[in-house]
């Protein structure tokens, strides 16, 4: 049901941008509710149970929203999901929303793997280089991969930039064998 998730995500992205909400705060609040929903079996039972009146479900939602200081628009989205029996798609909606907002706000997510921990200066330089290549602001996630031997591998969407020693050795091996 990816279309359900993307439909709600696109609609909520419209709300976030038209109401000039802080996108990080809105997605964070939605992510928090999705986390509570995923971790708490009792909450899932109540929100997914058609025998529980919608008013009680929304009352529970309002208590969560107040306790977590979540924005009214996020609360309204979750209330709509509960009312339309779509709350089980909440985690996928959050994922789609993050992608939708990134695309609309000009962000690219980069997964960067390196053989060793990079210094802050190296990270900034790498992110600046990626921004120059993609033309977008970069949100980087870093990971370690000792098999790279040195250098880094960057994945932005489906594009991979391989600047690792391992990648260079493989390209040399291919050149020699052909």
Describe this structure in words.
The protein has helices spanning 2-18, 23-39, 41-48, 54-68, 72-83, 90-105, 120-134, 165-177; strands at residues 107-114, 137-144, 152-156, 159-162. It has 178 residues and is an alpha+beta fold. The chain has two domains: 2-103, N-terminal domain of the delta subunit of the F1F0-ATP synthase (Peroxidase, domain 1, Orthogonal Bundle); 107-177, no CATH class. It has a four-stranded mixed sheet with strand order 2-1-3-4. β3 and β4 (159-162) form a beta hairpin. α1 packs across α6 (90-105), α2 (23-39) runs antiparallel to α6 and α4 runs antiparallel to α5 (72-83).
Task: Please outline the helices and strands.
Elements: H1 2-18, H2 23-39, H3 41-48, H4 54-68, H5 72-83, H6 90-105, E1 107-114, H7 120-134, E2 137-144, E3 152-156, E4 159-162, H8 165-177
Parallel strand pairs: 1-2
Antiparallel strand pairs: 1-3, 3-4
